[in-house]
Fold this sequence. Notes:
Elements: E1 8-12, H1 17-27, E2 31-36, H2 58-63, E3 67-72, H3 77-87, E4 92-95, H4 101-105, H5 109-115, E5 120-125, H6 140-147, H7 167-190, E6 194-199, H8 200-206, H9 209-216, E7 238-242, E8 247-251, H10 255-261, H11 272-278, H12 280-290, H13 296-305, E9 310-312, H14 316-321, H15 323-328, E10 331-336, E11 340-345, H16 369-375, H17 380-389, E12 392-393
Parallel strand pairs: 1-2, 1-4, 2-3, 4-5, 5-6
Antiparallel strand pairs: 3-12, 7-8, 8-9, 10-11
Amino acid sequence: xGVLDGYRVIDxxxxxxxxxxxxxxxxxxxxxxxVEPVTxxxxxxxxxxxxxxxxxxxxxxxxxxxxxxxxxxxxADEGREIVHRLAATADVFLQNYRPGxxxxxxxxxxxxxxxxxxxxxxxxxxxGESGPYMARPGQDLLLQAMSGAMLSTGREGxxxxxxxxxxxxxxxxxxxxxxxxxxxxxxxxxxEGQRVxxxxxxxxxxxxxxELSVFTVGGVPQRRGSEPHGHTYIRAPYGVFAxxxxxxxxxxxxxxxxxxAFDLPELASMDGDADGHTRRDEITAIxxxxxxxxxxxxxxxxxARHDVWAGPVYGYADLVxxxxxxxxxxxxxxxxRTEGTVTTPGFPYGLSATPPEVRRGAPLVGExxxxxxxxxxxxxxxxxxxxxxxVLACED
Length: 396
């Protein structure tokens, strides 16, 4: 039994941020009903990396485990009625439609909360639900660019570099997950439902609480130097350096210790907190010239001996084979009815009494349509009629 066993979530979201937030609720035991068009949610037709799968592509599979699928045409009156009946039985209702779409479909907060005053209604958007940018497309790369984060790394004159993960989507998803749990706790205490509003822009700003506070409170400008550097507000050396056979990541070691460990006496007299910032380029260049003398493994052994913060630079093949990753159970392996044995990232938290688990893989389009309508009291013959009329869809 999960900690959210007995709770129902209605997930009307697409792409990554919304589905990931809903999946995390499902991982904790909630009954998550994914409401998608009769042709299937967008992510089903946009396979990341071209990993199409048999009937479910890898990107959709990764974001939609522990959900049941209801495929329904929300432009049809009875389609909307079905979702309204589901909402009346639910605890959380989550959507990330473009501005105005929820209202046109009758899935807005006013409509849903009138049907179920205790519901937690989570509304997700790109830039906010009002203001000059409300109609702009809320896409991860665009928000990374606007957030300022791309100019916190690299070298002056180099082009801004995106993150190697969908960072804004992920932090937005966890903001929605956190907001939903907080609102459920409030409801448990007071009986009151409420609206939770999350947008990608605010999430991208909030996650940079240290960097932006250094700028707004400390008045320190965001300045990239002439040498590659891991972050403008972290003292040198900080970043990835070439070795004899690969690369080594160094995380702001003490300069006096590094002077001994790396045989760099010119660093011994420097002050880490002061010179580490004001002489950042000089320090970076000194270290960069030294590291090609040995292999990554040799440097890692030296760093471990001198308690210097360092680590290898992995690709995905290295990551999944790493002994600590395997020890942690960072990935989960389970059987999917059409994709066979699948291995995907697991859970970012552990609970001793009510741990998250995979109860079902990502559904086919409308795989649970008949099941859900049966729970709502629809006679099988009426469900069959709605399927024939295209109001519903169901893949077996």
